[in-house]
Amino acid sequence: MAESPFDIVIGLEVHARLLTESKIFCPCANRFGEEPNSLVCPVCLGMPGVLPVLNHRAVDLAVRAALALDGRIRPVSVFARKNYFYPDLPKGYQISQFDRPFCEGGAVPLPDGSKIELIRIHLEEDAGKLLHPEGDDGHSLVDLNRCGDPLIEIVTAPVITSPEEAYLFLVGLKEILLYAGVSDCNMEEGSLRCDANLSLRPRGETKLGTKTELKNLNSFSAVRAALRWEATRQERTLLDGKKVNHETLLWNAETKEASPMRTKEEAHDYRYFPEPDLPPLVIDPSRIDSIRATLPELPGPKRERFMKEYGVRRYDAEVLTSSAELADYYEKVAARFPDRALAAAFLTGTFLRYLSEDDTAPGLAPVGPGALARLLSLVRDETISLSAAKKVFDVLWKEGGEPAEVVDRLALRQISDEGEVEKLVVSVIDENAPQVEQFLGGKEKVFGFLVGAAMKKSGGRANPSVLGEALRAALEKRRGGRRA
Questions:
Q1: Is the same domain home to 39 and 147?
Q2: What is the domain count for the chain?
Q3: Residue 430 sits in a domain of what CATH number?
Q4: Whole-number Å distance between alpha carbons of 185 and 173
Q5: Distance (Å, whole) CA 94 – CA 43
Q6: Final residue in a domain of this structure, among 291, 316, 339
Q7: Which of 409, 440, 470 is the last residue of a domain?
Q8: How do the pLDDT tens digits run along the chain, 484 residues long?
Q9: What DSSP designation does 29 have?
Q10: Do residues 319 and 393 share a domain?
Q11: For 42-61, what is each residue's pLDDT tens digit?
Q12: Are 101 and 240 members of one domain?
C-alpha cells in the first residue's frame, strides 16, 4: 500500500466523572443507575434565584488528578458560563472554566517512553442525558440525573499522530486516573467519555488542516475505529480536490461509520463569560502539598520498579501494573515466593483468565496470594508440574482448599524417583521399537515423540528433566551396545 501523502493530527478531549458523594454545585447524590430525574434539585435544574455552592471534595480530586498527570496548578482560577441551548441543559448554560482553568500542562506517558502533552485540565459540571426509546414515535426523553455531576475535562495538545497512539494514550490515562482514585472510569456508565478531533495536513507542513470532531465514542476501541475511518474519509476528500468541512460527526458503532451532526462550534459560539455566582477558586499551596503527599506510586514508576526489583519482562510489568489491585496482589505473592518470573507468568496467564471469566477483581479472587504462593512453590521444588498446577488452581478457585492437599487428592505429585523413571523408560523403549530404531538411525526429532509417549504413560506425572536424562541415557546405551 502506498504511503499516505498526509500527516494525521489528533487532539482528544476526555471527560472523567469525579468520585464524590454529591454533585459539584449542589447536595444531590452523584450516583449512576437511579430512576430518571430522581437525583435533582432546584440548583441542578436551574431554577430562578438559586445559587451554586462549590463542592470542595471535587476540587481536591481534580487537583489530585492534575498532580498525577504532572500538571501545573494555578493558585487562582475562574469559573465561566458556557452558553448553549440543548434539551438536556436546563439552565441554558454549563458552568465550566475557560481562559483561566485550574490546571495547565501535564502529560501521559506511552509504553515506548514518549509522552502525549496536555494543554489543560479544567473543572465543570455535567449535562443531562437524552434517551431515544424505540417505537416511541421518534420522541426523545430527558434524564437530568447527571446534571451537575462533577467532571474534569482533560485536553491534549494536537500532537497525537495516529489512531493507535490515541488508543494507547487513553489506556495510559485511565490507568493513572484509577491509580489516583479520582474516577471509576466506567465508560458504560459515562464516567469516562471522549471526543476526538482529527485533521490532515500535507507531509512536511506545519500548518494544521481543517479539523472535524467525532462524538458518541463509548469505548477505546470505538475511538480507534472512528479515527481510522475519519482519517480515510478526509484523505479521499482531499485527494479528490474537495475541502473538508469544519463539522461535528456522530459515530455509529453498528455501521462503523460517522455522519454529520452539526457545524463545529468555536469558543466564541459559546459566549463564555465569568460565572457571576461563584468567586475565583483559590487553591492554597499547602493544600496542594497535602494532596500530593497522599498520591500512590503511579503506573509508570511502578512498572520500572517491577522490572528492576523483581526482574520481570517489560510486557509482564505492563500487565501486572495495569491496575493497582493486580499489582498489589502480585507483590503479595512475590513477598512469599522467590521465583518472581514464574509468579508473573502465572498471574498474567492463568490467573487473569480466571478473573476475566468470572468478572472478578484480584482482591476478591477465591485464591489468595498466600495460597497461590504455596501452589507455585510446589512447582518450583518439582513436586508437581506446571500443567498439574493449573489443574490444582482450578480446584482451588472453584472449591477452595489447600494446594498440597488437592495435589494428593488428585494424585498429581511428579515421579522423580530415578528407579521408577528408569522402569518407565524401559517400558516405553520396548513398546516403541520402530521409533527407537529411527532415533538410533540418526533421526533426533523422534526423541520428542518418545518423551511424549513416556509422559503419557506416566499420566503426565513424570519429572520432565529426570525423564529426559534417563531416556537419553538408555538410548545412548543401546547405541553403544550396537557398536560393541
A1: yes
A2: 3
A3: 1.10.10.410
A4: 10
A5: 12
A6: 291
A7: 409
A8: 468 899 999 999 999 999 999 999 999 999 999 999 999 999 999 999 999 999 999 999 999 999 999 999 999 999 999 998 888 999 999 999 999 999 999 999 999 999 999 999 999 999 999 888 876 677 889 999 999 999 999 999 999 999 999 999 999 999 999 999 999 999 999 999 999 999 999 998 999 999 999 998 989 999 999 999 999 999 999 999 999 999 999 999 899 999 988 665 665 677 899 999 999 999 999 999 999 999 999 999 999 999 999 999 999 999 999 999 999 999 999 999 999 999 999 999 999 999 999 999 999 999 999 999 999 999 998 898 898 999 999 999 999 999 999 999 988 887 666 777 777 788 888 888 888 888 888 888 888 888 888 778 777 777 777 777 878 888 877 776 665 5
A9: B
A10: yes
A11: 999 999 999 999 999 999 99
A12: yes
* Whether the Cβ atoms of residue 461 and residue 412 lie closer than 8 Å to each other: yes
Question: Which three-class secondary structure state does DSSP give residue 104?
Answer: strand
Residue 166 located in a structural domain: yes
C-alpha cell at 341: 518470573
Residue 182 falls inside a structural domain:
yes
- In angstroms, the CA 347 to CA 368 distance is 12
Question: Quick one: pLDDT at residue 269?
Answer: 77
Largest CA distance in the chain: 109
**Residues of 306-341 as b/e, b for ≥16 C-beta within 10 angstroms?**
bbeebebeeebbbbbbbbbebbebbbbbbeebebbe
State whether 273 and 342 are in the same domain: no
Residue 175 CB neighbour total at 10 angstroms? 23
Domain that holds residue 262: 6-291
Nearest C-alpha neighbor of 131 from the set 191, 64, 190? 190
**237 and 317 both lie in a single domain:** no
Concatenate the DSSP letters of all residues of 267-330 into one string: GGGGT-EE-TTS--EE--HHHHHHHHHT----HHHHHHHHHHHH---HHHHHHHTSSHHHHHHH
- Asked whether the beta carbons of 271 and 80 are under 8 A apart, the reply is no
Q: Is the dihedral angle over the CA atoms 384, 385, 387, 390 positive or is it negative? A: positive
Q: How many residues does the chain have?
A: 484
Cα separation, 79 vs 465, in Å, equals 69
- The C-alpha angle with vertex 50 and arms to 49 and 52, in degrees rounded to 5, equals 140
Contact assessment for residue 41 and residue 25, using Cβ atoms and an 8 Å cutoff: no
